[in-house]
Amino acid sequence: MKILLVRVSSLGDVLHNLPMVADILRRHPGAAIDWVVEEGYVSLVRLNPHVRNVIPFALRRWRKSLTSKATRAEIAAFFRTLRAERYDYVFDTQGLLKTGIIMGAARLASGGRKVGLANGSEGSGYEAISRIFHTDSIKLDPRTHAVARGRLVAGAALGYPVDSAPDFGLPAPDLSNRPQWMPAAPYAVFFHATAREAKKWPAANWIATGLALAPMPVLLAWGSEGEKREAELIAAGVPNAVVLPKLSMDEAVTLARNAALAIGVDTGLTHIAAAFVRPTIELYCDSPKWKTEGNWSPRIVNLGEQGAPPSVPEVAAAAAQLMAAP
Fold first, then answer.
1. How far apart are the C-alpha atoms of 267 and 236, rounded to whole Å?
2. Phi, psi for 19 (deg, rounded to 5)
3. Whose CA, among 80, 211, 271, 324, lies 20 to 30 Å from 220?
4. What pairing do the DSSP bridges indicate for beta strands 53-57 and 32-38?
């Protein structure tokens, strides 16, 4: 059986799609699974050794130069690669026009099926027009967890129940080749940054939490100049904190993969730490916890709720609990 997964973005959503791979292979051990994903997230998907081919999609970059001859050649090469294989199943678990077009362009083997979402979840950017590319549309409860959505779509199409904890297929921590910025001692990482202001936790709270963790090193990552300034503000109040250099996607994943403790708001890197089953505290300030909470391990603690951010004592208590666990 040959299967194509289409989930191109964003970081957290690509991550939450990974358990589909283990589910499919548990029921169909010989299946060959390929995946179309935005080029910036290729390295994340490649961490799962059971994905046969990763097909990079670069729409974010192509949009900036659509009239360029080189860009048009890249787009043509992408569609040639996409259409080089005939698939028994193509799954679009994103439900957008752009992912529907990718699904529409993919080739099917005789009797093959193109399976997607019949509806979006609450607050999602689902585009109903994507259904025109389906042979089968799977309806789900609008409050289905982000990890469960893709799993349930595949289970419905392939005829198996989704009755196990999600397996992201990610490797164990690896400290054999530490980057220069990674301390020798066990460290905490604060994923304080997120695009939406309302989802952030106040700097004063991060500072108080960092002080409670002393003397454990606290590493602060950032992705923009604004986020760097926020990290510097937190570090100014926490003697054991270090503002990291700007990290690549691979380095950011390494940071999450090897943390002794990860604390973060509802953002992709926090969810990556949870997927690696690192001791993780997820902070929900202005997004619904039901949608993305790490619910597959006691090493993950989810605090707060939409409109009800967690307090510093709650976070400090959860950190102490996780650090004391064997």
1. 23
2. -60, -15
3. 324
4. parallel
